[in-house]
Amino acid sequence: MWDSFTSGVATSITLNSHRDDGLNEFAEMEYMNVTVVTSNKPYGASDGSNPFFDGRIIPKFGLKKGGIHSGHVQTGLRDPFCIVKNGKGKCQDGYTAETTGPDAVRVLVATKAKPNQNKNSSLDREFFISFLDALNRRQHTGRFNFTTQFPYYKEVLYKPDFGSKTLGKPVVFDMDMSAGDFLALFYLLKVPVEVIYLKAIIVSPTGWANAATIDVVYDLLHMMGRDDIQVGLGDVFAMNQSNPTFSAVGDCKYAKAIPHGSGGFLDSDTLYGLARSLPRSPRRYTAENSVKYNAPRDTDHPELRQPLALEVWKSVVETLDTGSKITILTNGPLTNLAKIILSEKNTTSLIQDVYIVGGHLSHKSKDKGNVFSVPSNEYAEFNMFLDPLAAKTVFDSELNITLIPLGIQRKVGSFPRILKRFQDTKMTPEAKFARRLLTRLYRLQQSHLRYQHMGTFSGEVLGAVALASNHSPLKPTLLVKHIKVVAEGVESKDGQTVIDEKHGKPVKILEHINLKAYYHLFAKQLVNTEQSAVMGSFDDQKRMWRTPAK
Fold this sequence. Notes:
Elements: H1 2-15, E1 27-36, E2 96-98, E3 105-113, H2 126-136, H3 146-149, E4 169-175, H4 179-190, E5 196-203, H5 214-223, E6 230-233, H6 265-269, H7 309-318, E7 326-330, H8 335-343, E8 351-357, H9 382-385, H10 388-395, E9 401-404, H11 406-411, H12 415-420, H13 429-447, H14 455-458, H15 462-468, E10 477-485, E11 497-499, E12 505-512, H16 515-527, H17 538-545
Parallel strand pairs: 4-5, 4-7, 5-6, 7-8, 8-9, 9-12
Antiparallel strand pairs: 1-2, 1-3, 10-11, 10-12
């Protein structure tokens, strides 16, 4: 209720703007001299942690040396300076404190919520009465939800009937929900189920999108009639980045390299503005935390809770046919795969092959990686950099790995050559969507300097094509090299994949393919009418919800 209470106090003060004492209905107010604490005692001591003072002749912002902003600045959740012997923290960064002198700002502060004037009410705060009255007021009330906006709204799950078909090799797709991952997912769903049977998807929020973007995965599966496919959510933090005593918080040492806008989180979370054109699935993201009274987040009812990646993995293993093994395609950081390896002994014996889209093998000094937001790290690739410890765990394992590195991805990342293949007038809904997404990425790349990395996403489809093609049309060149991933905790080196003949793991590297065959395979599969969309778009879905069933 804190945000609502703040809004109520602010609104009430505004209605009494002729007064300067902050008079309002809901809170007692008082002027105080305050500051936001940015450092810790001893003040004035320089230890290299304070950017306002360290290395400066004149402190930044005119701050006073020896003042409350001149001490040690907390450098992380586990900053040893801040932890005392009993395990409690002593640092106060971010606290609001009363103070005097030039660091103080005179601020009107709400010190106490006013009690309900009606002593007989079960609601003990005056604000609660006003809040409920406002919510129940007919004026400005909400007009629509799905059930009122669409008279024939109905939640339906589309699940295929494969009948007597012999299902192909079981595959688990590990994605971080970047734009390229959705193109790869379309492709996997279009490959005949006799060749590839996509059993599950596990999502890594340590990559290019936030956890709730899993809704877009659900929507795409709904569009393609594959609501039978389980989707599991992985850890929010990279390995060794979450707080050991409170895993809900952690460091973003590597994830901070992903921009928020300009081809980063905001664009990925909305699929570059195209997510809402997908039909809406009844399956939605819900947080893991429980809420009382059978709310959708109630962990006592796991069917109402977002499944976790390890839970989905265990379900896949339990339903695996005797003698079968799983093939995994990873298109993001290797956090989920590392956790699977570490979850139980002999897990690797259940995995047939792993196709990893990522890593970069630099052959010369000008052959740079793609971590453009960390200039000091010239040779790493994003999927390895975003969780280098997980990558090291995977490459130190006994898994049979095929690596699709950045070099070969760049060779296939030509937007004009891909789009040229989507000129067929008879397009499936999925082909139309893929063309729209590719066109948008290409236009952004052409018109905005900050979108120059869009080609990275077009190359991410290669792993799915390589896994499904049985190699023959692509004419691939695979070389075995001994690979090691750097994970030393040094930002300028972490995530780099290097050749190490003595200590590296033998890995099959995809060096070359027939480019013409690649573009042909990708486009041909998406325009094929077999295993096509059962609900073409959100517009189609809205028309269905407005029309009575026949």
